[in-house]
Write a structure and sequence with these properties.
The protein is α+β, with helices and mostly antiparallel strands and 303 residues long. 29% of the residues lie in helices and 24% in strands.
Amino acid sequence: MTKLKAKGSKRTHEGVVKISDLIGRVIIAVDFGTTCSGVAYAYSADPEEQVAITTWPDALSGGLEGKTSEKVPTVLRYIDGETQWGFQFVSTAPHHKWFKLDLDPQQRYKLHGVASTLMESHVPRNEEDVPVEKKATDYLTALRKHVEEVLRYKISATALSKTPIQYVLTVPAVWSEGAQAKTRACAEKAGMGHGAALELISEPEAAALFALKTMRHAGWKLMDTFTVIDAGGGTVDLISYKIMQLTPVIKVAEASVGTGGLCGSTFIDRLFQKKLIADLGSETGWDAEVLDEVMLSPEYDGL
């Protein structure tokens, strides 16, 4: 391993700088989504350099050489005492999906009209009663293990074991305090830390901070107000923020109470699927395989 040296850094008794002293904390951001999830990380010593995880285990590879994608499906299934997740099985296999929504049962009662008929699932037989907390914990555990495997490859297992890690996990703005508490408990059980080592941030607030940073030359001023529309797979959140501080870091405060609901792109997908079945279901050659091919095609980009 290359021995790194840096002026002003702490050194071991051999005069070698520890990697953990050079990178500081590892900050891992997890966008825990209804249909897909994403992860990125950065080192506190160089926070401007963010790295997105884009390689995920698939059915053939359980390591770092699997499926390449910006996001990984928020799905899992239990088979032979093991948990498979993300790209590790085909979408037509019985599995658990959309379970994130069950972390806030109150939102289920806010479904209206046709959306209330689209919460079908592909839950395996005899697994209808698996608690949502277990499903969320198992999924986040698999996600964490993969991310930390990537980091061990990047900075070595020894360095990672001696480096503080902080997880930042997103939650919908419309979620109740109870749902946020459930999410935190699941993340803690998944090994994502406790107390200050695990932070929750609302999805639109995270989006707002990113937008402000990437649009820093747009002439923002203190007390400017803007609205964020975070249209996700399961939920859509709308919230307005006011800029309270621009330097050295951007800080915002809510200018109005956020609102939203279960009307994300997944429901558009399901309505389209329902339309296809109604119009083409009686045609020769039409079956579930053809439907899946249409819904998962790059041209449609549905899930």
